[in-house]
Amino acid sequence: DLCRRVSPTYMRAIGSATASCTAVGSYFNIRSCCFKSSVAVRPPSRASHSHSHRRRLSTTVMSASQSQSLSSSSAEAYARLSQLRPSFQQTMLRIKNPTASLKFYTEVMGMTHVDTYDFNDMGFSLYFLQSFDEGAKPALEPGSVDAHKHLWSTQGTVLELTHNHEDSGEVYHAGNEEGDGFGHIAFNCDDVYASCKRLEEQGVTFKKKPDEGRMKGLAFAYDPDGYWVEIVPRSDKSEIKQEFNLSQTMMRIKDPARSLPFYRDGMGMTLVRESHYPEANFSNYFLATLPPGTPPPTHDPQDRDASKGYVGALHGPVLELTHNHGTENDPDFKHKNGNEQGKRGFGHIGFLVDDVGEACAAIEAAGGELAKRPEGGKMQGLAFALDPDGYMVEIVKRGGYGDAFQPYK
Predict the structure, then answer these.
(1) What DSSP element (H or E) covers 285?
(2) What dihedral do alpha carbons 158, 162, 163, 164 form, nearest 10°?
(3) Which of 117, 323, 335, 362 is the most exposed place for a label (fewest CB within 10 A)?
């Protein structure tokens, strides 16, 4: 669990380092101009935030229960937002070679290619992949109406791979250099050592193998674009039969007192685990969208064994928010969000909601900003909000629009 932060301590724990990530000018933050936002996205601060700088900041260990109280207007707005049933639906990564990436995530990591969108006139394609347990895989033809209906109604979370058709020579940034926000995605499995051995036999390379570094029993593999893919053990409570399931997206946050209310109180996620490491100056918060009808966990999120067992048995991914202590006290510090020109890779996460317009109104009422309004641009009916760290959060209508189940009008 200490393998979360980019610092000398972190790099000693797992080995050596890798990969990073402004402008919003298009629908999926790629070159093709599908919308022009009326709200400018402020570029992140370039201020250095070195390890020695972190030591000079006051160390903060804050449990979720200690997060600052919201104003009554923000609390009311977040309550309205949560009533729209937000559900964590996607994580987007840019890729160079669809053939290589689809092979890796389907044949190697066992995901199912559920849908495709080709925007040839705008020069990009989108590929959506999802983890299913044995016997639960739907029969879908990517690009079909049935596939669209599934994609925008799923109770699970997909990996969206975005490919720009024109090869500009850009090398996508994996997101683990100083100041970067995005860290990695992860997959759970029953036996990390055995699964990593099979991955290595299939030609997968590693940042850290499970027997390397201080943190034994977990690994970091590279996908074809160099993104870090953490391989994590399931708990003994898991009933998942498939070898791998997509299990997390990790992003670094500046201030949990702002990020936790956004995702927990507004976006309706459940805090299922929190871990604090004062000796290493960081904390992790794990949030999940629980399927409808699922009772909330009864354990204390700070109960290490109970929370780790609960998260390790989940089939759907959690959002892991990593806080390096002291960043909240630095007015100039801001994480890169994955969309800075020349440092692009990770693009956004996305949520389904019952009503996009109402969701956007609630986000703004809570003090948030929109990068794209639902009525703006060519693809009307969807929106992009900015979370407290400036990460792009796509807001899509659950079920899509019309008989074609499209995410836009």
Answers:
(1) strand 282-288
(2) 170
(3) 117
Q: Which residue has the tokens 């959002």?
A: 319
List phi, psi (to 5°) of 3.
-85, 65
User: Locate tokens 């959506």: which residue?
Assistant: 128
Model confidence pLDDT, tens digit, residues 315-342: 999 999 999 999 999 999 999 999 998 8
Selecting among 230, 274, 320, 340, the annotated active-site residue is 230
Q: Are 114 and 158 contacting, i.e. CB atoms less than 8 angstroms apart?
A: yes
Going from the C-alpha of 302 to that of each of 164, 259, 363, the distances in angstroms are 42, 18, 29
CA contacts within 13 A on the Cβ side of 214? 9
166 part of the active site: no
Q: How many CA atoms lie within 13 A of 83 on its CB side?
A: 9
The reply to whether 177 belongs to the active site is no
CA distance 61 to 283: 7
- Structure-block tokens of residue 273: 């685990």
Q: What is the mean pLDDT of residues 102-123?
A: 97
Which are the contacts of 17, defined by CB distance < 8 A and separation ≥ 6? 6, 11, 176, 177
How far is CA 371 from each of CA 23, 343, 380, 384, rounded to the nearest angstrom?
Answer: 10, 19, 13, 5
Residue 159: predicted pLDDT: 98
Say which of 160, 274, 320, 394 is annotated catalytic.
394
> How far apart (Å, rounded) are the C-alpha atoms in residues 407 and 409?
7
72-82 vs 356-365: helix crossing angle, rounded to 10 = 160
CA distance 119 to 163: 10
